[in-house]
Write a structure and sequence with these properties.
The chain has 194 residues and is mostly beta strands. It is built from four helices and eleven strands; from the N terminus they run αββββαβαββββαββ. It is globular, with a radius of gyration of 18 Å.
């Protein structure tokens, strides 16, 4: 059994991530979610991995359709877009109703609003990793939308935009476990107070 006193939650914030919209579609029902767990796993052939909570509607769509897309978000992505894709369920809301997108070769939606690049993937493998599913997909198409824009990182999202990962995110951390530190200047030097 792990001792929680040995785990410094702040250490997890030092791992770098981007922020993406991972999407899929099934029976004309388009959906997607904000993810910071997307990474390239091979170059020959080009493959990406995405991690999705089992309760996410998009996880069901990826499993059933066998395809997904990844839209790389730009640094100045609107909070409303993150709120729509990150904090609402596609079971209750049509996330693609009022956004710009294209439809890929597999029929999955590819978000173009606030995106700088995108990838469309066919699932080649999936793994059950407990609360989440890890999907590996071969890239079948991709493009750059806004080459001059910088990508949005999770660090920028947390520190500048003051955002946190939603509960279903692989990187979710209960805010009550985050220790606030303050530096107090004194005669004998600086003291960190928790």
């Amino acid at each position: 059994m792990a001792n929680d006193n040995l785990i410094n939650i702040e250490a997890f914030f030092k791992v770098t991530y981007g922020l993406y919209i991972v999407s899929s579609g099934l029976n004309n029902k388009l959906n997607g979610f904000v993810s910071n767990s997307v990474f390239q796993v091979t170059a020959e052939p080009n493959k990406f991995a995405v991690c999705c909570h089992k309760n996410n509607f998009t996880a069901t769509q990826i499993k059933e359709s066998g395809a997904f897309s990844v839209s790389v978000l730009q640094k100045d992505t609107k909070q409303g877009l993150i709120g729509l894709f990150g904090y609402k369920s596609g079971r209750d809301v049509n996330k693609y109703e009022n956004v710009n997108y294209i439809v890929g070769k597999t029929g999955v939606p590819v978000l173009t609003d606030d995106s700088i690049a995108w990838f469309e993937c066919e699932v080649t493998q999936s793994f059950d990793v407990g609360t989440h599913l890890l999907f590996i997909g071969k890239v079948i198409s991709s493009d750059i939308i806004n080459p001059a824009e910088d990508p949005l990182t999770y660090t920028y999202y947390r520190e500048v935009k003051k955002g946190f990962a939603p509960e279903n995110a692989p990187t979710f951390i209960d805010r009550s476990k985050i220790v606030k530190k303050t530096t107090v200047k004194g005669k004998s030097g600086n003291i960190n107070v928790e």
